[in-house]
């Protein structure tokens, strides 16, 4: 924008409109500036003002002319068509872009230089600060995970901190920023704050030392009585209703509200926090807590659903709060559950009751961890047949609130993956060894401070085998589908992996499911200095994420060899037909279990309280069906039945193709 000095007539008009200035020569305006809409304002320092010639629309259909009223401005740059009204103290050291509304605000000021919350160290997991991570507006769940848990690689952490420090230095400024189309109404003080575009802040009490990233496609909303200090908030996020956060990172598409409080915590994509409290937590994608008296402390979570009154303890009253816990993806805690840290809970585990011993169920996915008479009981694999588990897996992709085209966190939604299946394979080995060591007739087995009953152990072996067969069959059929096989050699050629990437152990890097070897290549590049830019590191994780299905088969092929106890070079069409048959049976068996589990939601006990003022069972059922629907008409039940038919037909089709190939070979 081209600026000019005020004319003497313009100064005269401003003075008539009760405006004052310490030095009128320090006020610069756009060429088509008109002073008619500036009243009762004091200017000091260097001021730049764009044209103010449009009306702005306020909530309720009120229209007001853009301009500046009842304010004190010091060292401020104001874009075109802004509405600034009733600033109780002052606006200082701030750049305000076009079409901004600022109405009835206590103060907006920057005293710098400031990095606006970027570079703030957040003490996650370990309250004493042993795992501090540096937050920035370019932080992803994957980079944060590495910074938090890979402390045993000091060069990696040192280089990452250097990279982030260099990036943060580029954000340092003596001027705050308010992006275009942003609205600030009825707010308290904003100190050292950088606001992106299309931010709406209504009724917030105080914002200090923070950055809000926002854009037209993914705007941010900050609501009544919110207090935020030392923070970075990402696009598409809503923070409302008296939330208090200090030293926090809030990722894309998150929702915090209903007096939630958090300190020294990070929340990544699509987290939700209401009513409760967080202290030193690493909330990976889709961590959800909705209830009062729920405390998440010193833990790492992802895809978590925390029940009311869920609690953890991170110290034993000796050396302070130094203990940590990891609850792997997809787990749930029921009402009034308790976990004593240190502990590690395996993926897709349901935690019920209060557990006073340090458990490690990380090699037992899809389990229940239940308290009975102050004793922890583990039920391996039982969550595989739970309707709730499948429903969660289906709803997560639908509840991805990220509208920003630039999605920072890599999120894999797969329920069955090399990460969870490798744990099932390990669990089978553990359970079989427990039977050998303790004896076939033992009524109770002990695993990492948790007891397993004989029936639970045997059922776990059965369920894990079903899970493995289902995953392997899914991968195999996807691989062979439309392969136009003519000979057994065609079959073997198709079964051979396209690359070596994907071999060995897989890890879950806070939403990113990937081979450990491939992740390690990225980390080595950071250590060697080959990757020395935050954006470049993030792009490497994104590339790895995009290759998931390409490299999944490399791992699945090795699982196939283990399952059939022979190399691919020796596999026959009959071997694959047998495996497809097992896959079909595993899918149908598991769906039947889900079907029966869903039926429990429609039994007589579930109808308790329906049919009020009537003792007639028919009326009770009619009331229930009007509210909940019938079992057969339930959308999820219909989906299970459809899935059984679909997979049965797919299995038959695959078997026919293999039979045809077998006939041609003869």
Rounded mean pLDDT score? 92
Poorly predicted regions: none
Number of helices: 13
The percentage of residues in β strands lies in 25-35%
Distance between the termini: 81 Å
- In total, how many beta strands? 41
Instruction: Kindly provide the radius of gyration, computed on alpha-carbon positions and rounded to a whole number of angstroms.
Output: 30 Å
Task: Report the biggest beta sheet as strand number plus sense, adding barrel if it closes.
Answer: 30 strands, mixed
Q: Fraction of residues in helices?
A: 25-40%
Tertiary shape: elongated
Structural class by SSE content:
alpha/beta
Question: Can you walk me through this structure?
Answer:
The mean pLDDT is 92. The protein is of the alpha/beta class. The relative contact order is 0.06. The chain has 13 helices and 41 strands. Among the domains are: 1-109, no CATH class; 590-665. The protein starts with a strand and ends with a helix.
List strands and helices in order, with pairings.
Layout: E1 3-5, H1 8-16, E2 20-21, E3 27-30, E4 38-49, E5 55-58, E6 62-65, E7 67-78, E8 83-96, E9 101-109, E10 121-123, E11 132-134, H2 141-149, H3 154-169, E12 176-178, E13 183-195, E14 199-202, E15 206-212, E16 220-222, E17 227-233, E18 238-239, E19 244-250, E20 255-257, E21 261-267, E22 272-274, E23 277-279, E24 282-283, E25 288-289, E26 295-297, E27 299-301, E28 305-306, E29 311-313, E30 325-327, E31 332-333, E32 338-340, E33 343-345, E34 350-352, E35 354-355, E36 368-372, E37 375-379, H4 387-398, H5 418-438, E38 444-447, E39 450-453, H6 454-480, H7 488-495, E40 506-509, E41 512-515, H8 516-528, H9 534-546, H10 548-564, H11 573-599, H12 617-628, H13 635-665
Helix pairs in contact: 3-8, 5-6, 6-10, 6-11, 8-9, 11-13
